[in-house]
Amino acid sequence: MGKLRDSVDARALRFALGFPVMLAAGFVVCAFLIRADLPEPLAIRWAEDGATDFAPFGAVVGVGATLIVLIGWAALVQAAPLSRPAVMRRIMMGAGLSISLFVTTVLAAVLVGQLGLADARESRVDVAVLAMGSGAAVGLGFVMGFVFKADERWSTDDDRAMEAALQRELDPDLAQDAVSLWVHARSSVFVMLGIASVLPAALLTIAVPWLAAVLVVLGLLAAAFLVARVRVDRSGLRVFAAGFLRVMDVPAAAIEAATPKDVKAADYGGWGYRSTGGTTALLVSSGPAVVVDRSDGRKLAVSGGSAASADHVAQVLSRVADRARHGGGTPAP
Q1: Contact, 234 vs 178, CB < 8 A?
Q2: Three-class DSSP category at 36
Q3: With CB atoms 3.0 to 4.6 Å apart as the test, which of 72, 132, 294, 323 could cross-link to 298 if both were Cys?
Q4: Cβ contact 79:95 at 8 Å
């Protein structure tokens, strides 16, 4: 029970469960108040010539009330979990209120359209009730979305942020030992890939659609491997192809040296991710790069963007590697 209280907004959950029930109860009470003026059975579906399907009063009211409750619960409960962003919770609260009121409006329009009739075949859905109720449902939903105050409670994300802040406070050099860098090929390379894949695919779409899709996918994969994210911290070096696929993970203690160099991609097997012999490389273009010598004799090369950023990455790598070799103490001068 304690975990449930910590994971949901109790007030929002009470409203999400109670409002549809109260709305359904109000619908049932109003339906019974006008019961004497309604035909039996009631029309529930219409075509161009009039009503085509009918159901008893009790079934219409019972199923309608059940729909109000179930649809309202399904939408409004989405605003209760505290793990979701506050903006999303506000949107779901407003949308849930609008949906609940709209369902009730449709049911009310069905009943009002049959008032005073002896035969439900002559009935129609009351458009005035439907229009006014729908407008009110949308308006009240917007108001609820703005006035609903999503509870902001301490979460695991706050714990991680607090821990990171404490580490920075206790170790002022921590921020200097971390760098994150995105590198990518020149824009002209991506334009060439688009021309080489999209244009032929457009020509092949009519004749061989699956081959056109294959060409587009291959072009996207080639473009993705010409983008990389480089992260350096005290744990070591990590390189992610396309920004999320980890292709290099080198512990700081395993780094012997890091040197900024101006390299040619052809010397390392070409652009993209390459692993030949004792060398692993992810180069998005020829030019500034960081060459890392590992203590086991292997060598890595990764694009560094500009000469300044490559030099900065190499300096941070050298510093964290030296710190790791000295057991996390002060780096050697």
Answers
A1: yes
A2: helix
A3: 294
A4: no
Please give the structure tokens belonging to residue 277.
Answer: 């012999």
Residue 141 and residue 94: Cα distance in Å, rounded?
Answer: 4
Please provide the DSSP assignment of 260-281 as one string.
Answer: EEEE-GGGGTSSEEEEETTEEE
Kindly list the structural domains of the chain, giving each domain's residue range(s) and its CATH number in brackets, ordered by start.
2-147 (no CATH), 166-185+226-325 (2.30.29.30)
Structure tokens at 289: 């790069």
CA atoms 311, 313, 319, 324: torsion sign: negative
**pLDDT tens digits for range 185-234:** 988 888 888 888 887 887 777 777 888 888 888 888 888 889 999 999 88
Question: Quick one: the chain helix, strand, coil %, rounded to 5?
Answer: 55, 20, 20
Closest CA to 260 of 330, 188, 181: 181
Phi, psi of 43 (to 5 degrees): -80, 140
